[in-house]
Amino acid sequence: GTVGHVSALRRTAVGPFTEGDAVSFEEVTGEPATARLGPKDRTPEVYDDFLLGVDRAFGEYPQVAIDRPAAAKLSMGNAAILPPLQVTPIRQGCADDIEPILAVEGDRPIAICRLEGLKLQPVKVFNLG
């Protein structure tokens, strides 16, 4: 065997986001990076111009459109059954479980799911209000 070590490590991309998408603490708050902000300084208006939607973060995931009853089930952590015609294009001939899949109702992300046969099983559920 051999021994090695890392003296520096820099992450330049995470999923669809690159270093070019990053903003500094100072850009967001107008304060130096060493500043400590209290709760009154953390108003949503300060961050709105910098926050990206969930759809941007999960844009590379396969998506499945679901109806309101299925969205209600997934939102409560329960599985929803999809019709075979809706599952076929996602599966593309693959019989194994498929993960991750973004379940959306209209333009609202509901959950990251795993597709088990016709069953859409939530893995992470969004509480976006």
Which properties best describe this structure?
129 residues; alpha+beta; 5-stranded mixed β-sheet; 5 helices
Strand order of the largest sheet: 3-5-6-7-4
Biggest beta sheet summary? 5 strands, mixed
Supply the helix-strand structural class. alpha+beta
* N-to-C span: 53 Å
Task: Give, in order, the helices and strands.
Answer: EEHHHEHEHEEE
- Helix count equals 5
Strand content: 25-35%
Please estimate the helix content.
10-25%
Q: What is the CA-based Rg, rounded?
A: 20 Å
Mean pLDDT: 87
Task: Count the beta strands.
Answer: 7
Uncertain regions: pLDDT < 50 for 5+ in a row?
none
Query: Could you say which overall geometry the principal axes of the C-alpha atoms support?
Result: extended
Q: What does it look like?
A:
- The chain has helices at residues 25-29, 44-47, 54-57, 68-75, 84-91; strands at residues 13-14, 17-18, 63-65, 80-81, 98-105, 108-116, 119-125.
- The model has no long low-confidence stretch (mean pLDDT 87).
- It has 129 residues and is an alpha+beta fold.
- Helices cover 22% and strands 26% of the residues.
